[in-house]
């Protein structure tokens, strides 16, 4: 079973995304912000995917992704940015960070499942 890190400051969103991860046949690992996610990632280099929010307290999603991409263990790990941000500037930064997918909130569960399945088959 693949482990997928879910990073979102909203407990409701984390719970919803975790359920989708389980339905896709993976094991969710949860973090409430980018800093907590970095700490989890340092102890779990076997994570097969990361799904993160953009706007979070303590450390935002793009900053977290920059720090993860700088680590060899996560340089190629698929990352889905799940956010309400549609700004072209942020999306360009995400492309430069090799973010695998940019999914807008509110998200469609079937679309999210498809994106997850395309990036990390069960």
Structure description:
By secondary structure, this protein is an alpha/beta fold. It has one domain (3-116): Response regulator (Rossmann fold). It is built from five helices and five strands; from the N terminus they run E-H-E-H-E-H-E-H-E-H. The protein has helices spanning 11-23, 34-43, 61-69, 88-96, 109-119, and strands spanning 3-7, 27-31, 49-52, 79-83, 101-104. A five-stranded parallel beta sheet has the order 2-1-3-4-5. Helix 4 links the parallel strand 4 (79-83) and strand 5. The longest helix has 13 residues, at 11-23. It is globular. The chain starts with a strand and ends with a helix. The model has no long low-confidence stretch (mean pLDDT 93).
Number of strands: 5
Report the radius of gyration as a whole number of Å. Answer: 13 Å
Characterize the largest beta sheet: strand count, sense, and whether it forms a barrel.
5 strands, parallel
Mean pLDDT: 93
Number of helices: 5
Architecture (CATH level 2) name:
3-Layer(aba) Sandwich
* Structural domain tally: 1
pLDDT < 50 runs, ≥5 residues = none
For the structure shown, list the relevant keywords.
Rossmann fold, globular, 122 residues, 5 helices, alpha/beta, 19% strand
Give the helix/strand layout:
Blueprint: E1 3-7, H1 11-23, E2 27-31, H2 34-43, E3 49-52, H3 61-69, E4 79-83, H4 88-96, E5 101-104, H5 109-119
Parallel strand pairs: 1-2, 1-3, 3-4, 4-5
Helix pairs in contact: 2-3
